[in-house]
Design goal:
Strand order of the largest sheet: 3-6-7
Number of strands: 10
Order of helices and strands: HHHEEHEEEEEHHEEHHHHEH
Radius of gyration: 22 Å
Largest sheet: 3 strands, antiparallel
């Protein structure tokens, strides 16, 4: 059994290397020569592993949903496979994002989200930047890199006092006291505090709960934000109240705000082609139609803490011990053939803070232990009864090891 697992892991590594080589070849043929470091090549290999796993999980979910449909006219008949992926645009995306240093093997950096392109009858894979990816980009391209960033959620029983900059007070600051750590009451807002070597530059960013909810995705699942959720039980649809992971969702929202260019300015001299490409992809995503937005928003807001794929963050260096990495599920044509078949794409698609009973204006930035922005099945009933919704599959559980693999 151990030898079989080792062999599958070695096959996966070999396929990921071939994927990385083929991607660079296609990028060079279409865009031109590009200099890629060894680390960026390793990132590209990780992209293959993560995308292949997503396709495998999505295919399992597609089959499950088709079997569960009462009316099979709503079935999604297009398998999630490499042969049905818009590889040309994927090649462009992965090279630029690898040059940015966004590693899919790191928690909450970057996630592949496949959604169906009905016009081309293929799957476009959007690369969605997670909140830790936003943090990484903000610090990498910062005009003035912060020395520390604090993000906190404020509850009704807490005491929070902003100390704003004034003629008599040159440094913006705050006081934060958790009166009862085990019964803090409902969430009323959040804040972030950005510190610099020059304290006069320090900035306090505040958001009320109303501000946070304005940024809540239109199609956000109650499994994460809380609220009522329609579920099927004994062939009847009923409403269930979900507690969700509201605090984690609020914290992620606050982090995205704090690490935005609005608060941490970007150095124009550091902007390169890959950064501009990333911003263009974000603009395309924002301009996407409601159907695409619905699929992406649901799938991008995923399992809070108990994500079984955390082992992926171990990286490629320990791949021989990756017990759960599945071998790709089928043979796939050469990337060049895929590019000819699928030549266009419509659109491309907050760190855990430890609480203490007394907060000061100089807390240390805690390690990143926040939940994955991963795809999962918990938004299933968001997709019921419409063909378009049925096309967007959720993913969470790890797939069993299939047989075979793509050929590059």
């Amino acid at each position: 059994m151990a030898e079989k697992t080792m062999q599958k892991s070695e096959n996966k590594l070999s396929l990921s290397i071939r994927f990385q080589q083929q991607v660079l070849k296609e990028f060079t043929n279409n865009i031109g020569q590009i200099r890629v470091t060894d680390y960026q090549k390793q990132i590209l290999q990780g992209y293959f592993i993560r995308i292949d796993r997503t396709l495998t999980n999505s295919e399992e979910e597609r089959v499950r949903k088709n079997d569960a449909n009462r009316d099979h006219k709503y079935d999604n008949l297009l398998p999630y496979s490499w042969s049905n992926v818009n590889v040309r645009d994927l090649c462009m995306d992965v090279v630029h994002y690898a040059q940015l240093g966004l590693d899919m093997m790191q928690d909450n950096f970057l996630f592949p989200i496949p959604y169906k392109n009905n016009k081309e009858n293929c799957y476009d894979i959007t690369l969605m930047i997670g909140y830790m990816g936003k943090r990484y980009i903000a610090l990498k391209y910062a005009l003035d890199k912060p020395t520390n960033v604090t993000v906190e959620i404020v509850h009704k029983a807490d005491t929070f006092k902003p100390i704003m900059k004034s003629r008599s007070n040159p440094v913006e600051s705050y006081e934060f006291d958790i009166e009862n750590p085990f019964d803090r009451g409902e969430i009323i807002g959040a804040f972030g505090y950005i510190e610099y070597e020059d304290p006069k530059k320090n900035e306090l960013v505040m958001m009320s709960m109303a501000d946070i909810l304005k940024r809540k995705p239109k199609y956000a699942s109650a499994n994460f934000w809380g609220g009522s959720l329609k579920v099927w039980k004994k062939e009847k649809q009923i409403e269930e109240q979900k507690e969700g992971w509201l605090e984690e969702m609020c914290q992620k929202t606050m982090m995205r705000e704090v690490y935005s260019p609005k608060h941490i300015l970007i150095d124009p001299k550091k902007i390169d082609d890959s950064y501009q490409y990333m911003k263009q992809q974000e603009q395309r995503l924002n301009a996407a139609n409601d159907e695409v937005q619905q699929a992406i928003e649901i799938e991008a807001n995923s399992v809070p803490f108990e994500e079984p794929e955390q082992q992926l963050a171990q990286g490629l260096t320990g791949i021989s011990q990756e017990q759960s990495i599945p071998v790709p599920s089928e043979s796939v044509p050469n990337l060049t053939e895929n590019m000819q078949k699928n030549s266009r794409k419509n659109t491309h698609s907050s760190q855990n803070v430890r609480n203490s009973t007394k907060k000061t204006t100089n807390p240390e930035l805690p390690p990143a232990t926040e939940p994955f922005d991963e795809i999962d099945r918990m938004g299933d009933d968001m997709f019921k009864d419409t063909e378009d919704m049925n096309e967007a599959a959720g993913r969470a559980d790890l797939a069993p090891d299939p047989v075979g693999g793509p050929t590059f």
